[in-house]
From TrEMBL, chain B:
This is Sodium:proton antiporter. PANTHER family: ANTIPORTER SUBUNIT MNHG2-RELATED. The chain crosses the membrane at residues 6-28, 40-61, 67-89. InterPro entries: PhaG_MnhG_YufB. GO terms for molecular function: sodium:proton antiporter activity. Keywords: Membrane, Transmembrane, Transmembrane helix.
Length: 173, 134
């Protein structure tokens, strides 16, 4: 299928699903029709703004992310506890700023990695350039963990096309 | 059954409140803007997350889909708050703030903590961007 059509269709379907979930009016044909029109108009505007690409509508990334989020949420909980301990005893902190390698190939993958770093309390991504991310960490161990590379690898896995897409030649990003 | 659910939701909401208070305490206690941002992100993640989870236990999905809206609030919060934190941290660095360290010596990547200096320590690919005026 033409990638543009695929992106438009998946954006339309997810927008309409969002509209249905938010409105809760599932019986009135007039409202359902208006919802369809609103979703279609949004897709049209996105197309006019040239936002209908693999970055604006990251289909395969969305599905991969579903496997990544539970792990990320658990990391966030652990990091919250670590930072809470630092707040109760500020003598523990030893802030450090250093570059951490980011091996993701696409911009979107790097953004996912940088945002994951920032979302985890105790580490903030300050700058992103040339395959490296400048990270400020509340405890020096935060930098060492990131250099260990587990989050980096998992984010690289998120940006990979789905197995099915890969066999048919990929999306041609 | 109801009592258990309400008890569970109270536990979650109170735990979320505790994290939010800790977050505020950290903002007061920590020494500089970067470390304070770390403290603030506590309220963004577990603080807000536990409170919304607690509300979710009480509301359920509900006939008026309140639960869905609560989940969406959390999802949007988790997507937008790191962007804001990143923008704030970069603005602070570009403005020339020196990250606080325990012994007062600069951290390895922030000699003078200006962005240009950071880039001088980073791989060559960075040099390109240092030319743009700020």
């Amino acid at each position: 299928m033409n990638p543009a059509v695929k992106h438009a269709l998946s954006l339309f379907v997810s927008l309409y699903a969002l509209w249905l979930l938010l409105s809760g009016h599932w019986a009135d044909p007039l409202l359902l029709g208006l919802g369809l029109a609103a979703a279609a108009l949004t897709v049209f505007i996105a197309w006019r703004m040239e936002g209908l690409d693999h970055e604006g509508v990251p289909v395969s990334v969305t599905l991969n992310a579903l496997a990544y989020w539970p792990w990320l949420l658990w990391q966030i909980v652990l990091a919250n506890l670590a930072v809470a301990r630092c707040i109760l005893d500020p003598r523990r902190i030893g802030p450090r700023m250093a570059w951490v390698p980011a091996s993701q190939k696409s911009d979107l993958g790097k953004v996912i990695f940088a945002n994951s770093i920032t979302l985890t309390p105790g580490t903030i991504s300050v700058q992103l350039a040339g395959g490296h991310i400048l990270v400020h960490a509340l405890e020096g161990a935060g930098i060492d963990d990131l250099r260990g590379g587990e989050m980096n690898r998992r984010c690289a896995r998120v940006e990979r096309p789905l197995a099915g897409d890969g066999r048919t030649g990929g999306e041609g990003t | 059954m109801d009592a258990i659910l309400i008890g569970l939701s109270w536990v979650l909401i109170v735990a979320g409140g505790v994290f939010s208070v800790l977050s505020g305490l950290g903002v007061v206690r920590f020494p500089d803007v970067f470390t304070r941002m770390h403290a603030a992100s506590l309220a963004d993640t577990l603080g807000a997350g536990l409170i919304i989870l607690g509300l979710l236990v009480q509301a359920g999905i509900g006939a008026d889909l309140v639960g869905i809206k609560l989940i969406l609030i959390l999802v949007f919060l988790l997507f937008t708050s790191p962007v804001v934190t990143h923008a704030l941290a970069q603005a602070a660095l570009r403005d020339g703030l020196t990250p606080w360290t325990r012994d007062g010596t600069p951290t390895e990547a922030g000699l003078d903590s200006t962005v240009e200096e950071d880039e001088a320590l980073a791989p060559d690919a960075l040099r390109k961007t240092s030319g743009e005026g700020t």
